Amino acid sequence: MRGARTPAAALFRRVFLINGLIFVAGTFILALSPASVSSRIKLTEIPVLVVGLAVMLTANALLLRSSLAPLLKSERTTAGAAALAAQENERQRIARELHDEIGQTLTVALLMLKRAVDRAPAEIKSELAGTQEAVRASLDEVRSIVRRLRPDALEDLGLTSALNALCSEFSQATALPVVKNIASQGDRLPADVELVCYRVAQESLTNVARHAAANKVWLDMHSTANHLALRIADDGRGGVVDEGAGINGMRERAVLVNATLTITSAKDEGTEVRLVIPLPDRDG
Ligand SMILES: Nc1ncnc2c1ncn2[C@@H]1O[C@H](COP(=O)(O)OP(=O)(O)OP(=O)(O)O)[C@@H](O)[C@H]1O
Ligand SMILES: [Mg+2]
To answer: Is the overall model pTM greater than 0.70, yes or no?
Structure first.
């Protein structure tokens, strides 16, 4: 199609049409109503003029607002998606730097310590071995931060495998079983949908580990032709009241893909996080 309309051109057309409509209506009313204005305006005519003007301005404002709402909403969503992309790029950069700089330095330090431990006199051997352990623990920590910052599995293998990997890591770290029910996705979903899903699952599982005191965790994902639903539930203490940066972050991410995020968390009855994302028409 030639001459695709830009948002600015569409905006201009709408404003022009609405204003035109109001002017036409105003002209008709003037022509058809008995109201008239003397050549030297009379005091009694002023209220009529003011009321007429107010009616026209109000009609204009109402029409403009309802007609521009979809445009403004789509602009907000686009800006939000750009913010999400920028944030993900920044995470990738930090992950790369952590891995390449601190990760390498710690690895070298570890090797040097190992040689030192082997040759050290008995009286400082155990102290050095302790230092070696501390450095090894830092290296593990850096690696796990890098993994969390950069969901490699998501890019390489897609959402289904990435969620499976996330669950295994969680179970390993917490010794809590995760009952998984992850329907495998035939096609890759849009990248932003996959990312939002992954991040919501990640934050929800982290919250279970940190706050829930649960015995069991469930993670399900399934999709129909027009939506994708993700659910993370636990049988822990429930009663989520104040929402911190983690839950707010999930809500903001949900908005970016027009999804709804619902948290159900009655006291002592566990917590359930549900994310429902509308999917773009796949055959359209
Ligand atoms: N699964 C859960 N079970 C019980 N309480 C929870 C659960 N998830 C969240 N909460 C409660 O809700 C609060 C807010 O969670 P949120 O993720 O927003 O913040 P946070 O985990 O405390 O910090 P962060 O910003 O690092 O995520 C938590 O402090 C906790 O009290
Ligand atoms: Mg949290």
So the answer is: no
